[in-house]
Amino acid sequence: MKIVSGWWILAAVVVLVKADTQEYKPYIDFPLRAVKTSADRIREHGYPAESHFVETPDGYVLNAFRIPYSPKLNNANEKKPVVFIQHGLFACSDCFLLNGPDDSIAYNFADNGYDVWLGNARGNIYSRNNTKISLNHPDFWAFSWHEIGTIDIPTLIDYILEKTGESKIHYVGHSQGTTVFFVMTSLRPEYNDKIKTAHMLAPAIFMGHCTNLLLTSMAPIVGKPGTGSAILEGQEFIFHNKYVQRALDTACGSNSAFPKYCKTLFFLWAGDSNTNLNTTLLPQIAETHPAGISSNQGIHYIQEYISDEFRQFDHGTKKNLKIYGQELPPNYPLENISAEMYIYYSLADASADYRDVERLPPYLSNLKNMHLVEDPTWDHIDFIFALKVKSTINDKVIKVCNDYELKQ
């Protein structure tokens, strides 16, 4: 029998592609105040916003958001290149909007003439519907980032290409958004041809040097198949319910009662060495983060840390033999990745350690640049929420995309 609250308790201790016409709503049915969607946030800044619902072959309904043009450019009727931006673990599409129109990469792309799409992975607050099984069905949470990479991202890309009439897109991923890209392009290599340029922000691929407290503290419990992982697999990790939301709202809301506690909660997720964070964003971040994941996603990363390999989910010897035909899960065939790739990483990243990132070049036949952030304090979450993220990351990513488009 599953201990449903297991992950939350342990975390607290260790600190067919189609648009569905049904009206789905984000899983925020316990508002302590009015909670905005990504579309609401986009429109608040005067940009047009669209909400799209895309069903995967296994029934998950993914909510993608779109900024079709920039009001600053008056380019609504012009043909525009497409960029697809995918969030990391515990996150959702909101994370690429919260820094506002001047500093968020989604708005920066729109203001440079791009058709911007923001994805949401299965299980987060925007993608908690399935047409085949209930949210309460035990199989709903039986997925890892493997399924997000092999099913969700390809499904979203195909939908975007169909809607826009384009044949290729630019891709930007942060953290897990890079992991799923590597999974997709290694196991479904035909998707390499649908990518113009791929930008990996803080790529979480090899994990052997990771020092993230949440991951390393859980490693002895779930790092290898056994009792711990058997108890905790296949359920939601850090539940998005009224009790958790009440705690976050009290700690991190606009009238925060415990601002230091709010920062502690955030740094457990994002890393505790951060000095660049725009801390004024914490109340907004708390509205939708953590956005909900399957425990299997966390377990899979912890398995990567223990094995020091980038490989598929380890179910234990008996099940591995049945699924993979071998005792250990197979490594992802990174040699299949041929998309034009750009990597951005830093020295102070506790989740995507620079030594792990620097293992990647021999596997990537079309790696164009490895950009090491000069700031030695730049951490994992700075790639989204830092005060200087526009000049440090966004402008560099967009310049590469602009240069690509000029050559076409």
Q: What does this 3D model show about the protein?
A:
- This protein has 408 residues and is α/β, with parallel strands linked by helices.
- Helix content is 37%, strand content 13%.
- The chain is built from 16 helices and twelve strands.
- The strands form two sheets. Strands 1, 2, 3, 4, 5, 6, 7, 8, 11 and 12 form a ten-stranded mixed sheet that branches.
- Strand 7, helix 6 and strand 8 form a beta-alpha-beta unit.
- The longest helix has 20 residues.
- The protein is globular.
- The N terminus is likely disordered.
Task: Give the helix/strand layout.
Layout: H1 6-13, E1 18-19, H2 38-44, E2 50-55, E3 60-67, E4 82-86, H3 100-103, H4 105-111, E5 115-118, E6 129-130, H5 145-164, E7 169-174, H6 176-187, E8 195-201, H7 213-222, H8 227-232, E9 236-237, H9 242-252, H10 259-270, H11 282-288, E10 293-294, H12 295-307, H13 317-324, E11 341-345, H14 354-357, E12 367-372, H15 382-385, H16 389-407
Parallel strand pairs: 4-5, 4-7, 7-8, 8-11, 11-12
Antiparallel strand pairs: 1-2, 2-3, 3-5, 3-6, 9-10
Helix pairs in contact: 5-6, 7-12, 9-11
Mean pLDDT metric: 86
Low-confidence stretches: 1-23, 26-33
| Major sheet summary line | 10 strands, mixed
C-alpha Rg, in Å?
20 Å
Overall structural class, as computed from helix and strand content, comes to: alpha/beta
So what's the overall shape?
globular
Helix content: 25-40%
The tally of beta strands, per DSSP, is 12
Which strand-content bin applies to the residues?
5-15%
Distance between the termini: 57 Å
**How many helices?**
16
Elements, N to C (H/E): HEHEEEHHEEHEHEHHEHHHEHHEHEHH
